[in-house]
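Troubleshooting log. The previous structure file for this entry was overwritten by mistake, so regenerating from the original sequence record. Sequence copied from the archived sheet and checked twice against the printout by T.R.
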Amino acid sequence: MSKKPKDKHQEQTIRIALAERHWVMLLGLLNQFIVKSVGPEIEKLKKQGIQFEDIDDVQATVLGGPILVRGIIVKELVAKGVMRPEADERVGIDKIMGAVEDFKKRLEDGEV
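Regenerated output below.
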């Protein structure tokens, strides 16, 4: 079985069925990774004067990916009634993508 070459932005979605408690546990682990690893790395880049838009795709994925995934999981858990809507309003994927769009606009306007 051969696979067609993929554009790096076109990936198939893989759905994984887990019990609600397992999703919540995974979300907790992911959040700890963000707090203990991603956050300090972003701060280190800031101290070095390196802007997020200046890092390569791999580093951007490693730093931004966990935050995006957390947002997706939160949105789905809220939709299923496992988490309160306030969680989605604070760190859900729509909030994150809105912040990304705001950041892009500020870049275009030369504010950053």
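The first helix runs from residue 20 to 47. Archived copy saved in two places this time.
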